[in-house]
Description:
Elements: H1 3-14, E1 25-29, E2 33-38, H2 52-71, E3 74-80, E4 89-98, H3 103-111, H4 129-141, E5 145-149, H5 152-170, H6 173-181, E6 183-184, E7 192-193, E8 204-206, E9 230-232, E10 235-241, H7 246-265, E11 269-272, H8 275-278, H9 280-289, E12 295-303
Parallel strand pairs: 6-7, 8-9
Antiparallel strand pairs: 1-2, 2-4, 3-4, 5-10, 10-12, 11-12
Amino acid sequence: MTDFDTAAVIECASLAPSVHNTQPWSFVPTDAGLDMFAEPGRRLDYLDPTSRQLHISCGAALEFASIGTRAAGRACDVLMLPDQAHPDLLARLGFGAEAPASPLETELAAAIPRRYTDRGPYSDRPVPPALLVDVQNRCTELGVWVRIIDNHADRAVVATILADAEAQEAADPEYAKELSQWTSARPEEQGLPLDAVPSWPADLVSDVPLRDFTGHAEHRRAGGDDEPPRVVRDTLLLLGTPLDDRSAWLSSGRALGWLLLRAAAEGASAQPLGPAIDLPGARERLRRELGLVGHPQFLLRIGFGSGEPRTRRKVAQTHQPLA
Length: 323
């Protein structure tokens, strides 16, 4: 590929989602393609002591880079965790011969700059069943299962786990400290800007608690008012894997990245429901109380919102080549 094409692929990867917009990745152009490295200094010490969410974030960037490569008309080979002697080298993305992109690959690449995390209310428009089928099929190809949380009992379980997990986080001063480091109105190209967390209308409330970015775990609830707000029930998707190791985390990120672009191509948006999968205890509760076979890795709501991208991006970085 030309230098311009390589830079374009890195730019595609830089637009991937990451936990608290930490963007914990960097890239090295090689003769054969790109090497992707983790940036441990951008790991969340409190929420992500095992680097699980860092790997998921990097997996999403890897998938965006792969889709960008295909859209540029080149074959693409992805090798994850290629060198045990270099644990921060998470993947090698190889550029192959010229190969026209499929219509879907072109659509997904076009959706990369449009994709964003929408934390506001979604409309009543249902998520198309064909989109969910496509997501399940692609995730299966990547070794990731998808569970749609659609019955009332399961949603009540998820809501309780979300509330309990966020309350546990909010009780620890280290959580609020870390959250404040990555959530601000400052113009740095990192973290989550405050205007990316919109206020909901007074007449609407979600049936599951959405993360309170003040760190206090405070949520408006239905009931108790003269005119209680209407409860909205968005489509909830849970991604998981048979194993719970670095490869599974990267695969989960790739599946998440593809899911989000497929949704964006349809005009839909999503929001992570982080507290349910932040800490091991909450993930174990999801596994046990939902009767899951495997390990839950990511929970999100999906629907049709009305917002627009607001999240800052760091300048695309490159890592020093391996000696």
